[in-house]
Amino acid sequence: xANKDLxxxxxxxxxxxxxVELRQVISRATELKQMIRDGEIYxxxxxxxxxxxxxxxxxxxxxxxxxxxxxxxxxxxxxxxxDTQLGRGEPxxxxxxxxxxxxxxxxxxxxxxxxxxxxxxxxxVPVINGLTDLYHPCQLLAxxxxxxxxxxEIGGKTVTWVGDGNNMCHSYINAARRFGFKLRIACPEGYDxxxxxxxxxxxxxxxxxNPMDAAEGSxxxxxxxxxxxxxxxxxxxxxxxxxxxxxxxxxxxxxxxDALFMHCLPAHRGEEVEAAVIDAKDSVVWDEAxxxxxxxxxxxxxxxxx
Length: 306
Ligand code: CP
Ligand code: NVA
Prior knowledge:
Layout: H1 19-37, E1 49-54, H2 60-71, E2 75-79, H3 92-99, E3 105-109, H4 113-121, E4 127-129, H5 137-151, E5 158-162, H6 167-179, E6 182-186, H7 195-200, E7 205-207, H8 211-215, E8 220-223, H9 235-241, H10 249-254, E9 260-263, H11 275-278, H12 285-304
Parallel strand pairs: 1-2, 1-3, 3-4, 5-6, 5-8, 6-7, 8-9
Helix pairs in contact: 1-5, 1-12, 2-12, 3-4, 5-6, 5-12
The structure holds phosphoric acid mono(formamide)ester (CP) and norvaline.
């Protein structure tokens, strides 16, 4: 357990928590979900506030954090650069010093991961990565919870990532390290994940260029949009590069008979995923999205009640 004197615990990547801590958070998420279903009122964050800085759009992340804080008896404040001094050039370090003297934790969704690290270095309270260009660790908490709820232990299984070597892919690589699964990454040349992040996984993640080969016998197939937020102008060129990297029914048939399909959403049916795949019974995308609420509540409890 962390000692408060050592400063706040942050969640900038999955590697900020140990395997044991991540597993605790995920099983706690399932407990918290059951408590809500049972109508149990549980307010460990009564009177506490989460500041949420969004430099990019969001549906799931915003609503899940805001609802989670409400259910826990606390409050969340939505901050956009359009309406705050952040959008007028106030240094991120100054914003961190100021905001962290008023709120009890801060979630940030931004572009440059280094900005998030800078903010965290100057914050007196826990900082949570709500997505950067490099990582999306909160989504992985929900994905790991969803796999566990549907299929049990993911350790020792094979997961296939199809598409861009992006923020989600990087977080899957970290998840492979922490949860002990094998990750096959099927991405077109030129769209590989950061080689340093792959190397650090020490063999837990490998590039398998052909998506049909990568899906062979896999227990979980995951994809994401071809053009992430901030890459909108590359949409056409990417659609061309990724044409052979759509998750199809045929590809899912290559996977294990019990394979699940996941997508962090929002999805583009007919681009990265065939409509029949996302709407099929082995697709758990709605549970995956819903679990954002429970997984992040477990994370907030972990970071804010220590
Ligand atoms: N998956 C995800 O983070 O969704 P939002 O962009 O809607 O928050
Ligand atoms: N890779 C996507 C994920 C959206 C939740 C993006 O960064 O836009």
